[in-house]
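Reopening this ticket.

The earlier resolution said the output was attached, but the attachment link was broken on my side. Pasting everything inline this time so it's all in one place.
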Amino acid sequence: MEPRLQAADLGFFSALAMAGSLSAAAREMHITTAAVSKRLSQMESRLGVPLVNRTTRRMSLTVEGETVLRHARSILAEMADLEQQLGASRSTPSGLLRVNATLGFGRSHIGPLISRFVQQYPQVDAQLQLSADPPSLTDDAFDVCIRFGPPPDTRVIARKIADNQRLLCASPAYVALHGEPKTPADLAQHNFISIRQGGEAYGVIKLAKGRQGKAETVKTRGNLTTNDGSIAVQWALDGHGILLRAEWDIRHHLAQGQLIQLMPQFHTPDADIYAIYPAQHKSAARVRAFMDFVAEAFKTARTERPPRTPKI
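Inline output:
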């Protein structure tokens, strides 16, 4: 008697859920959309429950589909680790590596690093998913998440891979036209470019005089808001206002004099860069190698960073 759930179903359904639609999954698997739909229907027929709610453009998982996906991801991760541990050379990274990162930082930094990583370790199959909000760190959807700040959940392991701070900045043209703020209260008189991401308070920043000073909450105002950090940086370069942005995203603009750091004596809460991973993946060679690779890349980049251009 044919089993209702086959091993191949787990990889298929996990890839389908990651793709987000039947057509996208078909492109990933290099088959037709009709073939994906037929395989999904066969899987649902064997299990006797619907796994996906289908619409013309999008799909969503049913309760049963979410259950299958959760177990499939866990089983696939365990199989990859078992295969690696039983291999002749456990020190050689191989298998599926699932990485999550924030939109702008993932696009500008993590994507290029993964490209170099798989060139060095061609036996690794890497998947990168970018998201505005950090995903749940305990549902085993990813092997490594790159995020700013330490995780609030103690059930995962966090490794700090780079120092980072958020800096206030503006273009020389904006400062020449509107003047340079000297105190947090001065910011209320300036146009502030806001980035609306995650659960952070919109239009509110915290500044402290020195690293040990008491943080002061500052309400900002401005006519430009986006959820994409790259767009916000471009608006600042265009002279539209003041921006608070991670040092790693604007450091080359500062070095070239395209942006000026403002109020350097004031500090925001630390935003160091961490690699987060579930405890059960700590022995996987692909995970260890990737985190070592990322940490070394950031260390090298900071060492090679050119000095900032003095403010004008």
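Reporter confirms the inline version is readable. The chain has a mean pLDDT of 84. The two ends are 78 Å apart (CA to CA).
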